[in-house]
Amino acid sequence: MPPADAVRTSLDEVWIQVHPTSQAKCVRCWHLRSDVGGDPRHPQLCMRCVVNVEGPGEERKFA
Length: 63
Ligand SMILES: [Zn+2]
Fold this sequence. Notes:
Elements: E1 7-8, E2 15-16, E3 24-25, E4 32-33, H1 47-54
Antiparallel strand pairs: 1-2, 3-4
The structure holds zinc ion.
Zinc ion binds at residues 26, 28-29, 31, 45-46, 48-49.
């Protein structure tokens, strides 16, 4: 039996249940990520943004 707040899909026995995330929002990229605040020098940034602000930048696979 699915949870009471689950929504039925068009597929048999497939239900969707949605919850808001509790992860923090990075002030630079606005992504909700668990690694926001991972660098104490930038408590409001995710680690991806820290690499782009402080380091050589992330490796981009597509230009
Ligand atoms: Zn970020």
